[in-house]
């Protein structure tokens, strides 16, 4: 059975940093993993994803500030967030795609339960 469990969320002041983790179980290391977020009253949006070979792609609104990495031995996905702004306030989710596709808002094999990030200005 597959499980994705996010952690590391919390409250931080604008300009600060946070690192989110997504502990996985039941997944192989060859799947593409992604991060998403959803702010109150807004649709869920894609943050970025990382393929099994470590290649990453980011949404333009986090490019240069957020970094996705993965520890395949520990089966943990990370999201390092820096230079946070109030616009980054949201619930953050990790999701798993497949070996041949990366997760999107509309298509993912598995989702975590989310972790809240609140950035105060």
Task: Tag the structure with descriptive keywords.
121 residues; mainly beta; four-stranded antiparallel sheet; 11 strands; 49% strand
What report would you give on this structure?
Strand 5 and strand 6 (56-58) form a beta hairpin. The strands form 2 sheets. Strands 2, 4, 5, 6, 9, 10 and 11 form a 7-stranded mixed beta sheet that branches. The chain is globular, with a radius of gyration of 13 Å. Helix content is 0%, strand content 49%. 30% of the residues are buried. By secondary structure, the chain is mainly β. It has no helices and 11 strands.
> So how many helices?
0
Residue windows where pLDDT falls under 50 for at least 5 positions: none
Estimate the global geometry from the Cα principal axes. globular
Order of helices and strands: EEEEEEEEEEE
- Please state the average pLDDT score: 97
Q: Give the termini distance in whole angstroms.
A: 41 Å
Structural class: mainly beta
In what range is the share of β-strand residues?
over 45%
User: Count the strands?
Assistant: 11
| Gyration radius over CA | 13 Å
Helical amount: under 10%
> How is the main sheet built?
7 strands, mixed
Oligomer: single chain
How would you summarize what this structure contains?
The chain has no helices and eleven strands. It is mainly β.
SSE arrangement:
Layout: E1 3-7, E2 10-13, E3 18-25, E4 33-38, E5 45-50, E6 56-58, E7 66-71, E8 76-81, E9 90-96, E10 110-111, E11 115-120
Parallel strand pairs: 2-11
Antiparallel strand pairs: 1-3, 3-8, 4-5, 4-9, 5-6, 7-8, 9-10, 9-11
């Amino acid at each position: 059975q597959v499980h994705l469990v996010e952690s590391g969320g919390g409250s931080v002041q604008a300009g600060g940093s946070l690192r989110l983790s997504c502990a996985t179980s039941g997944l192989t290391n060859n799947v593409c993993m992604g991060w998403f977020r959803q702010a109150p009253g807004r649709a869920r949006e894609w943050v970025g994803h990382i393929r099994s070979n470590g290649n990453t792609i980011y949404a333009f609104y986090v490019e240069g500030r957020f970094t996705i990495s993965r520890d395949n031995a520990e089966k943990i996905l990370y999201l390092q967030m820096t230079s946070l702004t109030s616009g980054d306030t949201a619930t953050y989710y990790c999701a798993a795609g497949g070996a041949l596709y990366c997760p999107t808002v509309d298509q993912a094999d598995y989702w975590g339960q989310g972790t809240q990030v609140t950035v105060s200005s």
